[in-house]
Amino acid sequence: MTIIPPAPGEPRRPDGPRDPGDAWVVAETGEKYWGRFGAAGLLAVDAQRGILLQHRVSWSHFGGTWGLPGGALHEGESAVDGALREATEEAGIPDGAVEVRFTSVLDLKIWSYTTVVADVVEPFTPVISDPESVALEWVPVDEVVDRPLHPGFAASWPSLRAELD
Fold first, then answer.
1. Which of 41, 145, 139, 48 has the alpha carbon at shortest distance from 93?
2. Is 96 helix (H, G, I), strand (E, B) or coil?
3. Which of 36, 79, 139, 151 could be disulfide-bonded to 114 (CB atoms 3.0-4.6 Å)?
4. Secondary structure of the chain: what % helix, strand, coil (to 5)?
5. What is the largest CA-CA distance in the chain?
6. Where is the Nudix hydrolase domain (predicted)?
7. Which residues lie closer than 8 Å to 109 by C-beta, 6 or more apart?
8. pLDDT, tens digit (0-9, with 9 covering 90-100), for 83-129
9. What does the mean pLDDT of the chain come to?
10. What's the pLDDT tens digit per position in 28-69?
């Protein structure tokens, strides 16, 4: 495994300081994963509106696909805290608007991604609050697969979908 920090001038969260976790983890096979300390995303479930999805900007990893608000964990940060922080940064999710139901972890030994599944308990309108989103939309559960999904989310969606019931 190799850790590669962002290159000078690389577009990445232009507002605010970089965190030590904002770096690529590169596997021996050459595959890249964002987040030196792993990453996490929030799968917000609204009983009436569906799943909150983020349309990723073109310059991001797998840009142009749909996935979950989320990103790199900070050093020492729990996956739940990181997913909630990232979702607030990227989608303006208000404090207390969701209640965590369960987590699902993809552990690759050199890197991990945690999906934090949470029920919306206070309805909210998502707001694009950083430059990482083209759009944020509530998508009915049965229509999620109709979008061009981020490959990692696409791979995990069938098992996550089954657990939602």
1. 41
2. coil
3. 79
4. 20, 35, 45
5. 45
6. 34-162
7. none
8. 999 999 999 999 999 999 999 999 999 999 999 999 999 999 999 98
9. 90
10. 999 999 999 999 999 999 999 999 999 998 888 888 999 999
- Contact, 136 vs 126, CB < 8 A? yes
Could you tell me how many residues make up the chain? 165
CA-CA distance, 137 to 155, in Å (whole number)?
20
Cα–Cα distance for residue pair 98/84, rounded to 1 Å: 9
CB 151 within 8 A of CB 77: no
Distance of alpha carbon 135 from alpha carbon 91, whole angstroms: 9
What's the predicted TM-score (pTM) here?
Answer: 0.88
Cβ atoms of 89 and 22 within 8 Å: the answer is no
Q: CA 32, CA 30: separation in Å to the nearest integer? A: 6
Instruction: For residues 108 and 53, give the distance between their C-alpha atoms in angstroms, rounded to a whole number.
Output: 24
Place of tokens 């989320």: 70
Count CB-CB contacts under 10 A for residue 156: 19
Buried b (16+ CB within 10 A) or exposed e, 18-36: ebebbbbbbeeeeeebbbb
Q: Is the CB of residue 39 less than 8 Å from the CB of residue 70?
A: yes
